[in-house]
Amino acid sequence: MRKLLIYTGWLCAFSTALAQSDCGETGNCFETAARDTCFYKEHMYQWTTDTTDTFIRQGYVVKYNFEYKIPTWAAYHLKEDYLRTPKRKGKYSSFKRDPDVNDGVVTSNYTGSGYSRGHMVPFFASGGDRDGDGELSDYFDDLKDPEDDLTVFQVNYMSNITPQDQDALNGSGGPWYSLETMIRTKLIPDLKELHLVVGSVVSDTCNLNKLVNSKGETDIVIPDKFYQVIIYHDKIAKEYRTLALLFPHVREKSKLPYKNLIDYVVTVDALEAEVGLDFFNGLPDAVEDAVEKSDNLAFWKKWF
After folding, report:
1. Closest to 240 (Cα-Cα) out of 289, 187, 197, 301
2. DSSP 8-state class, residue 222
3. Angle, nearest 10°, between helix axes 35-43 and 9-20?
4. What angle do helix axes 285-293 and 268-275 make, rounded to 10 degrees?
């Protein structure tokens, strides 16, 4: 869906630098001096939007809501190599305060709240030999691959975390969990590469639902909906395919509106109207209009 967008001067300058840059001779962001520009280009696929309060990480780009203390959205590139993630234990299991967020959330803010620390960009997407040195993150050796270690650590930043119900959303049988499982075990093995945008929705800004932990109420806002948008480029057929899903954030599985994951599918146009964003506006107008007005289930249905 096309719409008029107003950007800050910084964004215009950044976009100009982005258009003029490449990602090194090999396409490896670690081999260029303009790392942030390169990472932005990798993860913000066919999409330009307001970058206020946006952080560029090695494995994703995230827009953070400082008032609500949760990510608004996160965009990331996923391919087979990135699924080679270290075991989530020890140094790779710890949630970390984001060093770029003053008075940022810490993991203990969630203790006793009844909500899980839900990743926007999933932990399973943080692996791979991203710096191209032939090494992977190593649990036993901090010096073996610090660059790839940092990618994992950044996925565990609390700025990538939001309250999620463990049972009815991101636990076994929940629709968020089911979608992430489908992405990891079906879509990437078959399609090899995807770009995704994931996000939270706070519908009633006048009556915020705030996280209450063992010490009392916090400033962390609990979203009432979550979404994921996927875009796949079939380079042989020269076609784009999008898939959008919108989930209610409820506390009991009995309150979920649907039993089957496929029933949460919406068009990208419908999701844009819900969240006020214009996804994939880097595509030619006719292509964007075509892939966003359809749910594209004729293509995606076989994986559900």
Report:
1. 289
2. P
3. 90
4. 90
Tokens (6 digits) for 107: 């993991």
pLDDT in tens, 194-237: 999 999 999 999 999 999 999 999 999 999 999 999 999 999 99
Distances (CA, A) of 238 to 232, 234, 287: 10, 5, 11
Residue in 63, 65, 44, 47 with CA at minimum distance from that of residue 55: 63
Indicate the helix (H) or strand (E) that contains 64.
Answer: strand 61-65
Is residue 80 within 8 Å of 189, Cβ to Cβ?
yes
Q: Which residues lie across from 64 on neighbouring strands? A: 71
Q: Are 158 and 97 in contact (CB under 8 A)?
A: yes
CA distance 139 to 142: 7
Instruction: Give the chain's length.
Output: 304
CB burial of residue 59 (10 Å; 0-12, 13-18, 19+): buried
Q: Residue 23's pLDDT is what?
A: 66
pTM exceeds cut of 0.90: yes
Residues 34 and 171: their CA atoms lie apart, in Å, by: 39
What residues contact residue 247 under an 8 Å CB cut-off, 6+ apart? 169, 175, 176, 225, 226, 227, 264
Give the residue carrying structure tokens 């075991």: 87
Instruction: Give all domains of the chain, ordered by start, each with its CATH number.
Output: 51-303 (3.40.570.10)
Q: Are strands 216-221 and 70-79 parallel, antiparallel or unpaired?
A: unpaired
pLDDT tens digits, 244-284: 999 999 999 999 999 999 999 999 999 999 999 999 999 99
Instruction: Give the β-pairing of 193-201 and 239-248.
Output: unpaired
Burial of residue 7 (CB within 10 Å: 0-12, 13-18, 19+) is: middle
Question: Which residues, including other chains, have CB under 8 Å from residue 280's CB and lie 6 or more apart?
Answer: 45, 46, 47, 231, 240, 242, 268, 288, 291, 292
Q: Of all helices (H) and strands (E), which one includes residue 274?
A: helix 268-275
